[in-house]
Fold each of these.
Amino acid sequence: MSPASIRVHGLDTLRAVAVTLVVLHHYVLFVSDAPTFGWVGQVGWVGVDLFFALSGYLIGNQIFAAMKSPGGFSLKHFYARRLLRTLPNYWVVLALYFLWPAFRGDAPLLPLWEYASFIQNFALEPGSAFSHSWSLAIEEQFYMLLPAVALLGALFGGSLRLAWTGIALAFVAGVLLRAGLWQEMNGQNYKLYFYFKYIYYSSLCRYDELLAGVALALLRNHHPRIWGQLTRRGNLMACLGLLVTAVAFWFFVDDRYGFGITVFGFPAMALGFSLLIVAAVAEGALLRSLRVPGAGPLALWSYAIYLLHKPLCVLAAKWMKAQGFGAEHPLTIAALLALSVLSGWLLFKLVETPFMLLRERYVPSNAARPALLRPAPR
């Protein structure tokens, strides 16, 4: 990360919340198999969706701001920066899965080329090793596609009406696709297997939050009057965002695999998270200025924590059990959560940081003429 980058406390708070939710959910799902953290652990998978919304906004803002700037936008620079940001950590963890059998346990690995090309989420078998990389695959596909689409749109006149029509149609397509797949799932004997393989892990079913983030970035860069009206009401946006997400969470906890929540729940979360992002960047809003202790470091290490925490927690839980401490023992919970943070910090320091320094030296921005573009807020 560029030392010159502007860190927004509200966005750090949302990142920290996202990674915490995912870690707690994976602890419940793969370690304790019990309601260890109550409804929070049950619905913690939504942390991935919050990451999607943040990525859509931040990456979309980088692209649209660069395209409007005097320096212009460089597709080559953008891809170089994203790959230097995401690939080093990913390849280190992927190597652990392939070279250390205990790291993956009994779970089967997909062919290496699927992980390398980020298509492992296509019809992903539940229970596969490194299964949580499905979300990374969707984000990488998004990183590759969005700037090319934006440049193509600019080539054909950069019509905002066309852009908003495309976003609206994409939302509708996602709703219709999930509805059709749910109907097909309803006739299957193994409904949950079908749900995860063809709906939950599917790129075409899970882009709602990414798309919502892009819509926010489009508003910020091309509709300053509307953006100003929203950000002047940051605290109201936060209240509305909390209300919408609370309702969506309630329905997901109550009936996660039902028709209504499968079809409309993801757009509802996209709306709720989008409102929270507006509140997180709005001048004068409580969420923007609130400095939650530990949120900054957690946000900074969140990518590394996400990659490592699940397999390490599973391994460590076995060792703790051999020492007489079960998965629900407070000492085990504290030790494994601390391990998740510590291992993420270590990966960040040893792998991510050196490559980020290389990135700032050789590819300091997304601009075609970098000296003319100021760093975007992170």
Amino acid sequence: MRKGLAALFVAFAMLVSPAMAAAGKAAPAGSIHFDVHYGAQGFKIGEARHDWRLAGNKYEMSLNLEAKGLAGLFGLQYEQRSVGTVDAKGMRPERFSVDQRGRKLESAEFDWQAGRVSIRRDGNERRSGSIQPGDQDLLSLWHQARRVADTGKAVKLTVVTNKSVKQATLEPSGTETLKLPFGQVDTLRVRAWAEEGELDIEIWLSQQHGLLPVRIRIEDEKGGVLDQRASRIELGAPAAAAKQESRQN
């Protein structure tokens, strides 16, 4: 169970987006809170919070995951961060990092001029890979998902995690109305899957919230299911400022 839960929580990081806005425009800052459920019965095992801030052509974002009960005993509490710039291709990551309790810091350093990404643990390179414009890390990926929903066309790109460089396909998969704690929302669905067959993910993007991700369902190759449903959305600088203050205390 530990290995399966850990893999699903890492995959959940792929399911958040800086495309945060009402009326289809990017909000400069904000937060999304998720209830996290596991298994066919949908037992709630924890919560997650995504924070982002856009300033000019710069962005920074984070995803904090905290499991409760037995899942919490497995050490499934960590923060993932992505920083970079925004250009015509969307998010252009410069550094992606994972800080998990009890483990050494893992990161991916992007060198766009050289077309190379270096994946490191505690500062030491473990592996590397090639990148080109449009490729993403786990947290910046879902800006591209928003583009897929907008255009209705599938895309292929490289996704960089804290452990690997993977080829992935993003494709639209219809519409659906969801009932969430904060109300009913009309959504566009996007499916994401790794070509190696490791993940099968669906994300529901709210049309009332500028295509924010409001539900994410991940199924791994063993049939394990992780289902995240948004419980609250906070747009604007106060939400991000409160998060920053919390990190400093």
Amino acid sequence: MPDPAKHDPALPAADLPPSPVVPTIALTGDGKRHGHLRLPYSRDDSAWGSVMIPVSVIANGPGPTALLIGGNHGDEYEGPVALWDLARSLTPDQITGRVILLPALNQPAFATAGRTSPIDRGNLNRSFPGHPAGTVTQKIADFVTRALLPEADIVLDIHSGGRTLDFLPFAAAHELPDPAHQARCVAAMRAFGAPFSMVMREIDAVGMLDTTAEAMGKTFVTTELGGGGTVTAASAGIASRGIRGLLAHAGILPAPRPDPGPAPSRPLSMADDRATHVAPASGLCQPLRDLGERVAEGEPLALIHPADRLGAEPVTVRAQMPGLLAGRHFPGLVKLGDFLAVIATEL
């Protein structure tokens, strides 16, 4: 049997076992339906149990399909809050085409407020394209890869920093080898209308939903809308407005009426690998700059004090490049190798 953690996304579906995931509602056809993706999961307290992943489908006639995802990581809440609200409020007569909403895709992680699944410790956003005979997390990724992504014209995966990171609120598109494909994603990113828009470089893109969707040629947008394992009125509002802006861009919602609206999104870029800063030591982190502040190359960003003794000199972490502090480690304690900061270039 192939390695359950891996399969070639180009492999014909006939060469893989069928997915064990069964939708409890029809994913095609007009109207508005709420249900679950049911994934059988036998466990100590429920021998014939299932993981039940909430899903809504809202459709009205021919048109594009948008796949809207939250809860890829279970401790990030802007996506779930905005999509739960959209599932309640959006009606078929308001749209053209179809919207598929998955506000808590990694339902086991979401239910326990964790980044990864408590069942198999799987990080869903490092498990794509998944496998139908793999772990629970790999089975969820496989269903999205084979059943949902091929149906989608535009994909939005809403993230924030979770419990360990904090970010300026930005929508993001990735640097892609095909300029035309990248241009489509950048245009959709701008339509989301977050306060900041980032052309992003991932430090670890293997196994991501992003990478799988982009390899299929999909218009893909992701976000980082705050962090700290919570949601604010401001960050939830950014997510809700952004979703509607993206749906209007896709032609699913009518174009919004002209109004002053929020300030234009500020374009950012992760210019090169120097943008990402990793903790060179473990200890108590003392930030010296806050999110949104401009820093010069060589300027101190943080001090890392040894957490087990007093009187010792801290390690000084300096900016590897000039720019805007766009993301940071959130908890007070940091470990060697943890993500510490990201500096973005203003375009």
Amino acid sequence: MKPLKGKVALVTGGSRGAGRGIAVELGKAGATVYVTGRSIKGNSTNDWPGTIDDTVSQIEASDGTGIAIRCDHTNDSETKSVVNRIRKEQGRLDILVNNVWGAHDLGIEAKQFWDLPLKHWDTMFTAGVRAQLATNHYAIPLLRENKQALIVHTTFWDENKYIGHFYYDLAKNALIRMAYGLSVELKKDNIAVLAVSPGFMRTELVLKHHHTDEEHWQQSDELTKTETPYYIGRGIKALASDPNVMEKSGQVLKVGDLAKEYQFTDIDGRFIPPYIL
């Protein structure tokens, strides 16, 4: 059963991590998935594992349809070109997942605000918050042509707790507020806008940092409560398949709560509860 058959999705920042997990799960559910990112075959950003071509290959291996488009979402003309191509090739866009995030380029240092370089603003706001805002700007006119559509912002949220890194906390909360504001403006268009917060994910970069891989992560005590990026992918797939998703518009939702509501598990069969700082 493919509940998203006939739907068209755009997942930004889909070379690895949450973006890859989301794109793969949407593709398995039947959606035609456009995957954007900077990393392409033979030229991966910072030589990190994963490219948009790898993600599309994984979608196709699950009998899905994926289309890779190299895009730096800090470049508005490239973002606009992606949406124009989707309009030309598909004539519609049903699901937009704003996942692009530039903070990995600099890393997240465990320092207080006044000791952090101002460069964090560029990686988290220019290459994160603004990149997602610009994607919305160009994609919303196409989304509004549907009778119903969905926009998701991936973020991190744990009620009103301070995340512990000034720029990261500020940027992630800005994404939540962006989703809420758009939910108000797009309510009359029947477009649900949500922020979705995963837990501690075992992304390719997290595994690399801990000098392990997906086959051996259980040997690390620090990774015992982690989840795969496919967990958030399954959560967003469930939301995209829910005909009553408009009832949730404007909310920030934790993946663990979605797993409980929609009755899904991670790919290893585990239910991972909502992440708590």
